[in-house]
Automatic annotation (TrEMBL):
This is Transglutaminase domain-containing protein. It comes from Prevotella illustrans. InterPro entries: Papain-like_cys_pep_sf (IPR038765), Transglutaminase-like (IPR002931). Keywords: Signal. The keyword S-adenosyl-L-methionine does not apply. It comes from the Bacteria. Residues 1-19 form the signal peptide.
Length: 450
C-alpha cells in the first residue's frame, strides 16, 4: 500500500482524549513535519551512494511496499528523515549491496552480551530467584530546555526517568542529587518519574539534572514447554493482560489472522510464544522509528512497513501473544551496555507455573548463539545491562497525586506528552503548553561501579 497519507481525523482519533485538546491538530502537524523532513532528491542522493543508477520507478516501488517511508503533508510528499538509511536495513537486496561496500553490519551490544549472556546462563541456575551477574551503575541524567523556550518568570515543570523500585531485577535504588528539590513517584506507579520545577530565566537554558545509583541483574530460567501449565482463565492476571487496551494493543482482523496462522495447532503457551518470537525476529528487522505519537496503531504499522524499532516490535509481540491467550505487559527504560547505551523497550510474558518472565523481542535471536538455549535466551531471559523505568505505557504521571513519601503534589501532566506511549527521555511543560523534543535536549552519563 502506497504510504502517502494526508493529515486526517483518523490519526487524531487514534490518540483518544488528546485529540480533543485545543491545538492538537497543529501540534500533530508540527511533529510530522519534524519527522518527515527529507525531499525526494535528498533521499535519492543517499541511495546513489550505494546504487548509482537508481531510478524514480524503483523509488516508487519501494514506497508501495512500505520500505521507503513517506507521507503527503499539505499536498507535498515528504520522506522520513531516516527513510534512506532504513531502506538498507529493511530491503534484503539493498542490505546486501550496502554490506558489499561497507562490510557486514553488527550490533555493538552483541559484542558485550557475547560473553555476558553465557555467564548469566551458567550462574542463574544456581542463584536465588534466577538472577545473576549483578551490575551496579551510577547515572547522571540531564534535560536542558533551550534558552527562552519559556518566557522568563514562568515555571517550567519537568519529569525525568527514574529507576523502578518494585521489580526484582533492580534493587538498591538511591537518589544521590538533583538540581532542585525533587519528588519521586510512588514505587508502583506505571512510569517511575522524578518531578521538579524551576523558574525560567531570560537568555539562559533551564537545566534539570538527577544523579542516582542502582543495581540490576540478569535473569534466566532455561524455560521449557514442560515447565508451563494451563492457564487459570479466571485469574486477575489472565483477564487483565490478555485483552485489548484500547491504545496500541488492538485486535484487528489482520492481526487476528496472523496470530492464528502462527499458533494454529499449538496448545502449549510457551511454544506459541516461541513461534511468535521467531516469526517477528526473522521477518521484521530493526529500523529507525518515527515518533510513536504520530502512529495510529503501532503493531499494524510494523506489519505494513515490514520493520520496527524495539518498542514497535515489542507491541506486535504483545498483541499477538494476547490474541493467543498469553498474558503480556510492557516494560522499558534504557539499555546500559558499556559503549552502547540507548533508549530501549521490551516486555514481560506470564506463563502459568513459572510467573512473569522478561522478553526482549528486538534483541531477538543473537548472531552469536551457539545452541537453542542461547537462540532463545531473550524469550524468558534478559541481560543485566538495563535500567527499568516503566511497567506500562501511555499512563498518567503520579496518578495518586502523591510522591514516594506520601506528600500530595501537583505532579500530573496537563498537556499532551511529547512521547505519548513511552517514557524515557523525560517530559517538560509550562502554563503555555507542552515543550516538544525540538525545544530541549537530553543526556545520559553512566559510570560503571565495582
Amino acid at each position: 500500500m502506497k504510504k502517502q497519507i494526508i493529515l486526517s481525523m483518523a490519526i487524531m482519533a487514534s490518540l483518544g482524549a488528546m485529540a480533543q485538546t485545543d491545538g492538537w491538530a497543529k501540534e500533530l502537524r508540527h511533529r510530522l513535519l519534524l519527522d518527515f523532513n527529507k525531499s525526494r532528491e535528498e533521499v535519492k542522493a543517499y541511495i546513489r551512494r550505494y546504487i548509482p543508477d537508481v531510478t524514480d520507478d524503483r523509488l516508487d516501488a519501494w514506497e508501495r511496499t512500505g520500505v521507503l517511508e513517506c507521507l503527503t503533508i499539505d499536498g507535498e510528499k515528504r520522506y522520513f528523515h531516516n527513510a534512506a538509511p532504513n531502506l538498507f536495513r529493511v530491503d534484503e537486496d539493498c542490505r546486501h549491496v550496502k554490506e558489499i561496500k561497507d562490510g557486514p553490519f553488527s550490533e555493538g551490544y552483541e559484542d558485550v552480551d557475547r560473553t555476558h549472556v553465557p555467564a548469566i546462563m551458567r550462574q542463574a541456575r544456581k542463584a536465588t530467584g534466577w538472577l545473576a551477574e549483578p551490575k551496579r551503575v551510577r547515572v547522571t541524567y540531564t534535560l536542558t530546555v533551550k534558552a527562552d523556550a519559556v518566557p522568563a518568570g514562568e515555571t517550567v515543570r519537568c519529569w525525568l526517568p527514574f529507576p523502578r523500585r518494585d521489580v526484582n531485577r533492580q534493587r538498591d535504588v538511591r537518589l544521590i542529587a538533583s538540581t532542585v528539590s525533587a519528588h519521586v513517584s510512588p514505587p508502583t506507579d506505571p512510569h517511575s518519574a522524578l518531578y521538579m520545577e524551576q523558574v525560567a530565566r531570560s537568555g539562559q537554558p533551564t537545566v534539570f539534572q538527577e544523579t542516582f545509583e542502582y543495581t540490576a541483574g540478569g535473569e534466566y530460567r532455561g524455560l521449557k514447554a514442560s515447565d508451563v501449565k494451563p492457564y487459570d482463565r479466571r485469574s486477575d492476571v489472565y483477564r487483565r493482560f490478555t485483552g485489548e487496551d484500547g491504545r496500541h494493543v488492538v485486535f484487528t482482523p489482520r492481526l487476528r489472522q496472523l496470530a492464528d496462522s502462527l499458533t494454529r495447532g499449538v496448545r502449549n503457551p510457551y511454544l506459541k510464544a516461541r513461534r511468535i518470537f521467531t516469526y517477528i525476529a526473522e521477518n521484521y528487522p530493526w529500523a529507525s522509528a518515527r515518533e510513536y505519537s504520530t502512529i495510529e496503531n503501532i503493531p499494524t504499522y510494523v506489519v505494513e512497513n515490514r520493520h520496527g524499532d524495539c518498542g514497535q516490535v515489542t507491541l506486535l509481540f504483545m498483541t499477538l501473544c494476547r490474541l493467543s491467550g498469553i498474558p503480556t505487559h510492557w516494560q522499558s527504560g534504557f539499555m546500559t551496555h558499556p559503549g552502547h547505551d540507548n533508549l530501549h523497550d521490551w516486555c514481560e510474558a506470564y506463563f502459568e507455573g513459572v510467573g512473569w518472565v522478561p522478553v526482549d523481542q528486538s534483541f531477538g535471536i543473537p548472531s552469536y548463539a551457539k545452541d537453542d538455549a542461547e537462540r532463545y535466551f531473550f524469550l524468558g531471559g534478559i541481560d543485566s545491562w538495563r535500567m527499568i523505568v516503566n511497567n506500562d505505557y501511555g499512563q498518567s504521571f503520579f496518578p495518586s497525586g502523591k510522591d514516594a513519601e506520601g506528600k500530595t503534589i501537583n505532579g500530573q501532566k496537563k498537556y499532551p506528552r511529547s512521547e505519548t506511549v513511552d517514557f524515557q527521555r523525560g517530559e517538560v511543560e509550562w502554563s503555555g503548553g507542552n515543550l516538544y523534543f525540538d525545544q530541549w535536549s537530553w543526556n545520559i552519563a553512566i559510570d560503571y561501579l565495582p
